[in-house]
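Chapter review: from sequence to fold.
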Amino acid sequence: MQRFSDFLRDTCHVQEKSISHYLRWMDWYEEFKRRRKPGASGVEEFVSLLKSRVEPWQVDQARRAIRLYADYRMRRRMVPADAAAAPVPAKAIPPVQAKAFAAGSTQRTAPSNPARPAISGTISRKPDVSVPSCPISTPTPPGWAEVEPALVRLFRLRHLSFRTEKTYLAWVRRFRAFCGAKAFVEITAEDLKEFLSQLAVQGAVSAATQKQAFNALLFLYRNLLHRGIESLKAVIRARVPPRLPVVLTTEEVKRVLSFLRGTHHLAACMIYGGGLRLRECLALRVKDIDFSRRCLVIRSGKGDKDRETVLPEKVAARLEAHLVRIRALHEQDRSRQVAGVWMPPALERKYPHAGTEWTWFWVFPSARLSVDPFSGVARRHHLYPTTLQKGFREAVRSSGIAKRATVHTLRHCFATHLIERGYDIRTVQELLGHSDVSTTMIYTHVARKNKLGVTSPMDVL
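The token string follows.
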């Protein structure tokens, strides 16, 4: 039988650095119960005592620790009695501290073991950002009808993007149709293996698509069926081979951009000039542009990371004129009492009126209002990615370039052309926002026409 600490780590995916704190809260809570009336849980009384002594995030962490431990005990009762002895959640706390705490004393006592901090305020002030992957309170997995709502709740708790949410739900629906009349609690790793095999053999999907399907269903298995990766080792995962990116020459980039007009031309120039991803460009806000330093601040890019990149000199003047026109659209929305632009949930709670301010307005707003899929409120979103993708595809076709170029190709061109001009790989890595320099190194393979200076024997015939 797995221990409570293993349950927190493997099943609930609590961060390793937070597990000791969870065990500490259970130590205090168990001692608190022993000094109260027999049979009384005293959860709310315990939490009320904590509120006067620790920070709010610590109170939430303690409450969650108690809830997860109750879930752990419920699961454990389903195991036969001879399977394992009952594990102790953590080492008992020092009697002096327990006595002071149970008596409601407000005096903070230094812990006898400095390796394990007491709740008196010596715990790290960094809040626990991990999210429980097992939010359901019962040990029995839900039925198919409850799967999608449960998954949506998990996606929102983990702050996954809306695109990830839609993609994962689409794969779950396909997997449900594949399983037919089979109940959700009866599906096994063999069903996942057969589903992926059908995708590869009959569906002839790419390795990347098969990997995406596996990741979506692995999320389902881990968080709703509560089955770890150990039970899925028999599933054969497709290997995605490395591919060289499509890169245009500077003359080809100039030719393609000449066939774009208006907002599409400005957005494409910013993507090429700063190495932006498509959605990073479209999600730019007015406050993210620093004209004095000639830089762009990319907020919550891939991997939810921030970075800075360059704002081209040739684009700055046009961008300022573009913002003057967009300011009129912002004032029109304010006069019509249109809801403010989308804001991250935490910022929206902290600054409820920030969505209506000019600094948070989109640099590339959509011409029409749309309904927010999270809140159901009609507001102005940024330009939809498909519109720029279609415009760029038409420009490539009109230019007569026989390459499979997309909007993302402009980002590849940015990196490749910088390397060709002699910029070091670390500078390019920071501008692109890559976590590993090995990802950036792929552009060195397409950086030059003939980087070795080798003369082909065909040329001397």
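Two observations follow directly from the output. The two ends are 75 Å apart (CA to CA). The domain at 250-445 is CATH 1.10.443.10 (hpI Integrase; Chain A).
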